[in-house]
Structures are given as C-alpha cells and as structure tokens.
Design brief:
The protein has about 450 residues and is α+β, with helices and mostly antiparallel strands. The protein folds into two domains: about 1-355, Beta-lactamase (3-Layer(aba) Sandwich), CATH 3.40.710.10; about 365-445, Lipocalin (Beta Barrel), CATH 2.40.128. Helix content is about 25%, strand content about 25%. The chain has a nine-stranded antiparallel sheet, with no helix packed on it. The chain has an eight-stranded antiparallel sheet with strand order 2-1-14-13-12-11-10-8, with helices on both faces. Strand 18 (about 400-405) and strand 19 form a beta hairpin. Helix 2 crosses helix 7 and helix 2 crosses helix 10 (about 260-265).
Length: about 450
C-alpha cells in the first residue's frame, strides 16, 4: 500500500519542477488511493503576482464534461430509460430523414465512432451553433466510416447525446448532471466566464513574442448549443478527484453513485486506435476508447478538458483503486498529459517502452487525398522515397507540411515542425479502404 504522506514531498517537488521548467503559472496535482486523497499546488493564479493556488481554485471542466455525460447516459440505460443499441432517430424524430440519424447508435456517440464527417468548433466555415443548423448539417454530412468501426473525436456527438437525454427525460442534460452526479458527490460547480471570482484559478495563454504564458483578461461565452459537450461548470482539483473516484466505485455516502454495469462499461474499451508515429508527445495519446473513457498506454482510463487559458485531466485505474487529477491555469495540454502519465507510471505500473514494429505498407500505396472533420484535407505524395503530407482545410490556403520515411529498421518516422503532431495509417474495417489518423481525428482516402 502506498503511503500518501510519504509521497507528499516527492509529489510537491515534481509539481514545482514542472511549473518551473515549463513556465506554466500554476498547477495542481491530486492523487486518491482507496478514497484517501493528497493534493499538491505549485505556482500562482496570475503570472507575475503572488497569488498562490489552493484547494479552492476553480477550473473550467470543459471537454471532461463528456465523462459525466457518459456516466449519466449509462445510468439511464441501466434504468431502462434509453437503449445503447437504439438509433439516434428513435429518440430524435427529425433525424429520421437523415442517414446518420437512422444508423448511428447511442453507443457510437459514447465511443466517438459515429462515422460522419464532423465539424470544427474553432472554424466559422464549418462550425454550427444552433440545433436547426446542426440538423441541416447532418442531412448533408458524408459518412467517412461505418458507424461503430473507427474512432474519431467529435464534439457534436456529445451535443446529440445531450439532446437524446433531454428528449427521454424532459430535462436538460446539464441539470441532470448536477442533480444526479455532482451534488451527490458534494460538488457545487461554479460558472466559467461568469462574474470575477477570487477563487478562479486564473487563465493564461502562450505569447509567442515573449515566449511565456500571459494572463487572459476575458473568457469566451459558450454558445448554448455546445453546452452538453463542454458545459460552463468550474470545479476544484478535489472535485476532479471525486469524479475519478466515482468511476472506481469509491463510496462517499451511504450508497455508491454508479451501478456495477456502469463501472464495468467505463473500464472497457470498444475500439482500438491505430499505431501512430510522431514526437515524444505522441506517446501520451490514447490507445483505445470505450463508452466515455479513453484507455492510455499505462492501462489507466480517463478523460481530459481544455478551454481558454486552462486545462485539466483525470485518470483512474480499477485494478489498483488509484485515481489521479491535474489542473493547470494555462493552455498547455502537453504538460497536463505528461504530468498524468508520469504520476501513473510511478503509482500504477511502469510500462516499458517498446520499439515500434517495421511498417508493413509501401509508402507509395499511401498516396492520395484524405478528408477529415472540419473541412480537413491531407494530400499525400511521394518524393525521393519520402511520403510528403500537406495538411490543411478545404476552405483555407494555409497548410502544414510533414514528411514520413522509413528508418534503417523499416520503422515509420515522422518529421514535422509541430512537435505534438502524430500520424498513423490504417485500413478502414468495413472495406479495407486506406485511412489515416491525424492526432485524434480520422481521415478517409477519397482519391488516389
């Protein structure tokens, strides 16, 4: 059994070192073992000011809202309120005229395997901000992959889940998240972007000119359409640990929050991601995904969130009963993922790094045009035994160029100006058509 108090000085030194060497203004790190917690904070709420982070510091839940939404949907399914194998159109009648409404199942939305070509929330050319516009989008959106076969991270899937919940219960999904999940965990969420609050952890963006993180004075308002996917909830590091503990079945009151079936679903993967190459950051990506949770290389499961000037994440391991959480007041997801991975490797299990196997495909066979979410397009062509990727969007001139080659051992290697870029090629399960994974987004080859 790990002694949490003996762990305290090591964890504090680690958090201080990360904060100092990365330049993030503030970081909070938490660990829970069998329900016993340890929280560590380093840095400040505002760069250049003596405003230390503490247990009351609040961070935007962001994309991590999807984990709570998954818990809610799984519990509703266990109670017979909805069926995971039912089509979306069964609960949202206006989608019956769409191919996606008839063929995408509730379980596909939970596992990010809907297969339709998604949108891009930060790109006005492909973003939708209201329900009627989204229905029109789904009427015309092409199918890139058969539902249930290929993972591709897509925010609108959570919007669809939220709408299904509203239709079957008569209540907004976020209201149910509060009443059925957060309040029983004794979590009273704040509101991101609301009135100034001295408990706010602070928000920072990276300034290229000064090569440092600088405070962000304002936070963008989240359109109501997107709230099921991101919410506007703010939580503390302790709240994050409570959410991770609930996924382990840790009991805080007279009864557990989640049923055994939900706990089992959260701990099970249903789709594998293809092997990818890239810089060191590519090793922090998930290797599989389940009904609401990612599976990481260390076999832990979890979820993450990012928003304007903040990011957070949590992991949990059912075998050891260990839960972890990290929160930063800066947009630095690579730092967040590194911290979570490092803590997991120390507390849960050490996973030896395995050399990638020789690449089995001929690079020339990978040439062609690939389409992905948000108008994304990748054009691949061979030059001097290298595969050159030109990455961009259909409606923009700006592109990024990366280059793939085989090393002396026949392993695929990536050269890119963006250190966080990762690329993997795979055959689409339904027809063996060529596809690629760019980060967490899947692209389908449409022309050779």
């Amino acid at each position: 059994m790990i002694d949490l108090q003996a762990l305290r000085p090591q964890l504090f030194q680690f958090a201080e070192r990360v904060q100092r060497e990365t330049g993030v203004p503030g970081i909070g790190v938490g660990v829970s073992i069998a329900g016993e917690r340890l929280e560590i904070y380093a840095g400040t709420r505002s760069a250049g000011r003596a405003l230390p982070l503490g247990a009351d510091s609040r961070y935007h839940l962001g994309c991590a809202t999807k984990l709570l939404l998954a818990m809610l949907v799984l519990e509703l399914a266990n109670g017979g309120v909805l069926e995971l194998g039912a089509s979306v159109a069964e609960y949202v009648p206006e989608l019956r005229r769409t191919h996606h409404g008839r063929h995408v199942r509730i379980a596909h939305l939970l596992s990010h395997t809907s297969g339709y070509r998604g949108t891009h929330i930060l790109d006005e050319a492909t973003r939708v901000d209201d329900w009627d516009g989204f229905v029109r989008y789904l009427e015309n959106a092409p199918t890139l992959f058969a539902p249930g076969t290929v993972f591709s991270y897509e925010h609108t899937e959570s919007v669809l889940l939220g709408e299904v919940v509203r239709r079957v219960t008569g209540q907004p999904s976020l209201d149910l998240l509060v009443s059925r999940l957060l309040l029983p965990l004794e979590i009273e969420p704040g509101i991101f972007g609301g009135a100034a609050d001295e408990r706010d952890a602070g928000r920072h963006g990276f300034d290229g000119a000064s090569r440092s993180f600088v405070p962000l004075d304002t936070a963008p308002t989240i359109a109501p359409f997107w709230l099921p996917a991101f919410s506007a909830f703010t939580v503390t590091l302790g709240d994050l640990l409570a959410i991770a503990e609930s996924a382990l079945g840790v009991q805080r009151r007279d009864a557990r929050l989640l049923s055994d079936r939900t706990l089992g679903a959260l701990a099970t993967s249903v789709v594998r991601l293809p092997p990818c190459v890239g810089g060191p950051l590519s090793e922090l990506l998930p290797v599989a995904f389940g009904l609401g949770t990612a599976e990481l290389r260390d076999k832990c499961r979890g979820n993450t969130g990012i928003s304007a000037g903040q990011c957070l994440g949590l992991r949990f391991d059912a075998e050891t009963g260990i839960a972890m959480a990290v929160a930063l007041n800066a947009t630095a997801p690579h730092v967040r993922d590194f911290v979570l991975s490092t803590i997991a490797s120390e507390l849960v299990r050490r996973v030896p790094r395995q050399a990638s196997a020789p690449f089995e495909l001929d690079l020339a066979r990978l040439q062609g045009t690939y389409l992905g979410p948000g108008g994304g397009v990748v054009r691949a062509h061979c030059e001097d035994e290298h595969l050159v990727l030109t990455i961009g969007r259909e409606h923009r001139r700006e592109t990024l160029t990366a280059e793939l080659s085989l090393d002396a051992a026949g392993r695929l290697a990536l050269r890119s100006p963006v250190p966080q870029l990762s690329v993997g090629f795979f055959a689409a399960p339904e027809d063996d058509g060529m596809a690629l994974m760019l980060g967490l987004s899947a692209y389908r080859r449409v022309a050779v």
